[in-house]
Amino acid sequence: MQEKLLTSGKVAKLCQVSVPTVLNWINSGFLPSYKTAGGHNRISPLGLLRFLTENSMFIPSELYGLSGVEPEELTSEGNQKKSVAIVADDEEVVRDLLHEVLTGINYVVVDVQDGLEACLQMGLLRPELLILDLLMPRMDGLQVIQTIRKQPELNNTRIIVVSGHITDDARRALEDAGIKHIMEKPISISEFVRISRFAEEQ
Predict the structure, then answer these.
(1) Nearest to 121 by CA among 132, 112, 129, 113
(2) What is the DSSP string of 111-141?
(3) Residue 184 to residues 124, 161, 163, Cα–Cα distance (Å)
(4) Is 86:124 a contact under the CB 8 Å cutoff?
(5) How far apart are the C-alpha atoms of 109 and 44, rounded to whole Å?
(6) Which CATH code fits 6-72?
(7) What is the Cα–Cα distance from 158 to 148, expressed in whole angstroms?
(8) How confident is the model at residue 68 (pLDDT cuts 50, 70, 90)?
(9) Does 121 score more than 90 pLDDT?
(10) Sorting pLDDT into bands at 50, 70 and 90, what band is 199?
(11) What span, in angstroms and rounded, lies between the C-alpha atoms of 187 and 108?
(12) Where do the structural domains in the chain lie, given as residue ranges?
C-alpha cells in the first residue's frame, strides 16, 4: 500500500476544520505526523483515517481513496476496529505472503521494503504489530528496533522478527531489546498466525 502524505492544510480541508485545529491534534499527540526537514507536518491518509474512526468523527469519502482502504476494511464483524500491521521485508514474495496471511486474520496491512521506510510508517501509523526482517536496505532490523524503542508512543507495538539468517549474536541482541517472537525463514504459517493473534491480544 503506497500512500501520498498529506499536508496540514489538506487535512484541514478534508476534515472541514481549521489548520490550527489540525496542528492542535498533532501537537497533542492524537494525530501521528512526520516533520520534514523544513519543519512542515506530513500526515498519512491511513493514520488520519484511524484517528477519525477511533474518535467517531466525520470521515470524508475522499479519504478512503487516498488511504487505499475501503470502509469495510477498517472494521470486522460486530463493528470491531481492525488492528494495523506493518510488514517490513525487502523480499517481495515474503511481503506478499505475510500481507495475505495477516489480511486473512483481520489486520489492515501496510508493506514496506526497507528499514527507513519502516521507521517512517511506524511514526505515521503507530501500528499494533510490526513484522520485521533483519537484513534490509538503508537500515537493518536491529537499527529499526533501536529507533522505535526511543519513541514512547510506539511502546505498545508488538514486534515479530522474521528473518532468513539469525546468528546467535543477533538472537541475543534481539532478546536484549525485548523481542519475544523470533522466527527463522522458511516459517510455519500456522505458527506465524498463532503468534500474530497472540501479539494482538497482548
Answers:
(1) 112
(2) EESSHHHHHHHHHHH--SEEEE-SS-SSS-H
(3) 28, 8, 5
(4) no
(5) 14
(6) 1.10.1660.10
(7) 11
(8) confident
(9) yes
(10) low
(11) 21
(12) 6-72, 82-201
Strand order in the sheet with 158-163: 107-112, 83-88, 129-132, 158-163, 181-184
The answer to whether the peptide bond before residue 137 is cis (omega within 30 degrees of 0) is no
Mean pLDDT computed over 48-63: 87
The three-point CA angle 46-26-201 to 5° equals 55
- Backbone φ/ψ region at 50: left (φ over 0), alpha (ψ -120 to 50), beta: alpha
Which fold, 82-201?
Answer: Rossmann fold (3.40.50)
| Sign for the pseudo-dihedral over CA of 136, 134, 42, 103 | positive
What's the residue count for the chain?
A: 202
Nearest Cα neighbor of 46 from 25, 70, 27, 77 is 70
Residues 6+ apart with CB under 8 A from 3: 44, 45, 46, 66, 67, 68
At 39, the amino acid letter reads G
Which among 44, 191, 54, 200 is positioned nearest to 117, based on CA atoms? 44
**pTM of the predicted model, to two decimals?**
0.81
User: Residue for cell digits 499494533?
Assistant: 128
